[in-house]
């Protein structure tokens, strides 16, 4: 079967699909991954066919972060500005999804960000499709909307807020969806109406996160399943850079600090905070540059570029991260304590889940990050054994899950 996976967003929104794609290929399928052009190398390393999408993930991330206050004390971006940037990203994405699918596929797999436009493309092509989501966005009484941090408003309030959240998403897609349907020769249909149709048909969605963090909500409809993480592809012969390996061997396990796609333009400020906190807490550190461009020089700290979290995290004392879905899961999988520093979008939700497990400290909101607060969190995460014990327990439970295998199984069961 020819399978096309479509994913858009930051690295954490794309990288897990390389691992899923490789597992599908190993099961005998022809697999292509459509993603923003900046991830062509990432996809090529996995050996999958790459199809480019035009949307710029850095612009999307910058738009999302505009909703929150900068560490350095700037004013928050307005909601209207955030909506404009999200709408521009969506408008750019639609034609790219259509072009990627037109190159041929027997089955379309949509991420959370590509599904609202992908549904129209699947309809036009008459191709079966499934959701392969990294976030639980379907309304439930068990927690509030993920993009709102998951704060509970009670069962009725949670469901109502979840429905409102989806209406906002549909409204953002209205113009892009109308243009896409016209381009594809489809009759007009409101974005919200298409979503209702998908729900009524029990359109299948497989969620790639662990039940350790989010058990399947009991009030979800049939067709919505939580199967466990699918992890970014890491070649069997991949090794850490020699300089990093030497640093890890030269002393006690360091703390990892990285903010992924967050913090663009704040590298100098974040680097100063990180180094000062490490020295206050008297621990060594590895700083990952990320989109912020973290850097440091010293015997007790090393700055690195992109390295596989699966190889690095198990050799650290703790992980300071922005609580993106992928990084949060990778730290938990490694069995090491986390210090979540959530910025925006779904990050406060995952940060809260980690803390509720006892596998990480109380989240330090990005806008409140200081060297003093980070140093105190580091002392707790590294010095108090219960954090590592809870993280190790979560890792043992996650080990029993194989999200990619479940996706392969469900595809072969449901798609002729």
Structure at a glance:
GO terms for molecular function: transferase activity. This protein is an alpha/beta fold and 416 residues long.
Descriptive account of the structure:
The chain is an alpha/beta fold and about 425 residues long. It folds into two domains: about 1-230 and about 400-415, 3-Layer(aba) Sandwich (Rossmann fold); about 240-400, Glycogen Phosphorylase B (Rossmann fold, 3-Layer(aba) Sandwich). It is about 45% helix and about 10% strand. It contains 15 helices and twelve strands. It has helices at about 10-25, 40-45, 55-65, 80-100, 115-125, 155-185, 190-200, 240-250, 265-280, 310, 325-335, 345-355, 370-385, 385-400, 405-415, and strands spanning about 1-5, 30-35, 50-55, 105-110, 130-135, 205, 225, 255, 285-290, 300-305, 320, 340. The chain has a seven-stranded parallel β-sheet with strand order 3-2-1-4-5-6-7, with helices on both faces. A five-stranded parallel β-sheet has the order 10-9-8-11-12, with helices on both faces. Strand 2 (about 30-35), helix 2 (about 40-45) and strand 3 (about 50-55) form a beta-alpha-beta unit. Helix 1 (about 10-25) crosses helix 15. The longest helix is centred in the middle third of the chain and has 31 residues, at about 155-185. It starts with a strand and ends with a helix. This is Glycosyl transferase. Keywords: Transferase.
């Amino acid at each position: 079967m020819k399978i096309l996976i479509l994913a858009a967003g930051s690295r954490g929104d794309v990288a897990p699909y390389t691992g899923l794609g490789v597992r599908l290929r190993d099961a005998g399928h022809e697999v292509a991954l459509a993603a923003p052009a900046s991830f062509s190398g990432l996809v090529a390393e996995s050996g999958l066919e790459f199809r480019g999408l035009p949307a710029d993930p850095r612009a999307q991330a910058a738009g999302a972060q505009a909703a929150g206050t900068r560490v350095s004390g700037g004013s928050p971006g307005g909601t209207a500005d955030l909506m404009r940037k999200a709408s521009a990203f969506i408008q750019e994405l639609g034609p790219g999804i259509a072009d990627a699918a037109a190159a041929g596929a027997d089955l379309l797999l949509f991420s959370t960000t590509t599904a609202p436009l992908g549904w129209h493309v699947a309809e036009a092509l008459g191709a079966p499709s499934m959701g392969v989501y990294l976030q639980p966005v379907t309304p439930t009484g068990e927690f509030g909307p993920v993009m709102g941090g998951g704060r509970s408003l009670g069962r009725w309030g949670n469901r109502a807020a979840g429905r409102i959240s989806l209406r906002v998403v549909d409204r953002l897609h209205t113009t892009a969806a109308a243009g896409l349907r016209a381009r594809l020769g489809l009759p007009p249909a409101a974005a919200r109406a298409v979503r209702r149709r998908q729900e009524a048909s029990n359109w299948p969605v497989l969620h790639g996160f662990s039940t350790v963090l989010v058990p399947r909500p009991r009030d979800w409809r049939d067709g919505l399943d939580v199967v466990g993480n699918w992890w970014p592809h890491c070649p069997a012969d991949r090794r850490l850079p020699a300089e990093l390996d030497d640093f890890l061997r030269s002393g006690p396990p360091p703390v990892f600090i990285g903010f992924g796609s967050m913090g663009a333009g704040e590298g100098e400020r974040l680097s100063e905070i990180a180094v000062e906190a490490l020295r206050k807490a008297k621990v060594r550190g590895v700083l990952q540059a990320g989109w912020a461009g973290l850097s440091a020089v010293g015997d007790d700290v090393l700055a690195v570029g992109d390295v596989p979290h699966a190889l690095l995290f198990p050799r650290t004392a703790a992980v300071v991260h922005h609580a993106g879905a992928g990084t949060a899961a990778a730290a938990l999988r490694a069995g090491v304590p986390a210090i979540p520093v959530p910025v925006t979008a779904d990050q406060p939700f995952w940060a809260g889940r980690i803390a509720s497990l006892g596998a990480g400290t109380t989240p330090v909101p990005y806008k409140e990050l200081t060297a003093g607060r980070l140093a105190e969190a580091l002392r707790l995460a590294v010095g108090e054994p219960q954090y590592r014990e809870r993280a190790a327990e979560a890792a043992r439970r996650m080990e029993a899950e194989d999200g990619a295998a479940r996706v392969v199984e469900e595809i072969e069961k449901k798609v002729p």
